[in-house]
Amino acid sequence: MTAGTEKPSVLIVDDEERVANTYELRLGGEYETEVVFSGEQAIQTVDEETDIILLDRRMPGMSGDDVIEQIRKRGLDCRVVMLTAVDPDFDIADMDIDDYVVKPVDKEHLHEVIERALTISEYNEQMQELSSLKLKRNVLEVELSGNELRDSREYQRLTEQIESLEAEIEDMEDTLDIDQVDLYL
Predict the structure, then answer these.
(1) Are residues 99 and 15 in the same domain?
(2) Is 57 in the same domain as 129?
(3) Domain presence at residue 95
(4) Does residue 2 belong to any structural domain of this protein?
(5) Do 159 and 83 share a structural domain?
């Protein structure tokens, strides 16, 4: 989220000015938005404060595919939603994107797409934190006796944190409709 605001930052990138401006209007002040009309402008504008990019795929000059490549080369970890008139093909399997949406997109769907991307971002952070906590717990379980673990307030707190985080993650998975089996294959 951008500094000084609680609103997520959304960069809208589309060479059709009318379309880009319409998306900005549809977001209705719920998000900190910025609109650019080319891939080159997107590369100049996107930074570590950008939470989500709504990106057209076919643009003159620098395509959306090229923009993604440049963003990832810079190490920026924003969510990328390809929002395009190009029907998907198997090539999207190799694209470093979080969602692929075919235009036209109404206001409700646009908000759903952004909220899903934000949830994915939070989900990834929660999974990283859970992994870290479980590694710490595992080290303690290997190095200390059962009696030491039972008597430790810190170990109990760590176990409670893990259980709480697992419940939060499960709720996010339900929201995202993530199939548990697919996650661990």
Answers:
(1) yes
(2) no
(3) yes
(4) no
(5) no
| Closest among 119, 120, 115, 112 to 96, alpha carbons compared | 120
- Cα distances (angstroms) measured from residue 147 to each of 140, 144, 150, 156: 12, 8, 5, 12
Co-location of 88 and 156 in the same domain = no
Rounded Cα distance between 29 and 31, Å, is 5
pLDDT in tens, 99-150: 999 999 999 999 999 999 998 888 888 999 999 999 999 999 999 999 999 9
User: What token pair was written down for 78?
Assistant: 């924003």
Reduced 3-state DSSP string for 16-83: CHHHHHHHHHHCCCCCEEEEECCHHHHHHHCCCCCCEEEECCCCCCCCHHHHHHHHHHCCCCCEEEEE
Please check whether residues 60 and 127 belong to one and the same domain.
no
The residue ranking higher by pLDDT, 151 or 180, is 151
Q: What backbone phi and psi angles, to 5 degrees, belong to 35?
A: -120, 135
d(CA 34, CA 10): 6
Cα-Cα-Cα-Cα dihedral sign, residues 144, 146, 151, 154: positive
Q: What is the pTM of this model?
A: 0.77
The reply to whether 74 and 132 lie within a common domain is no
| The total number of residues written for the chain in this structure | 185
Residue 162 counted as domain residue: yes
Residue-wise pLDDT tens digits, 40-67: 999 999 999 999 999 999 999 999 999 9
Domain of residue 154, residue span: 118-183
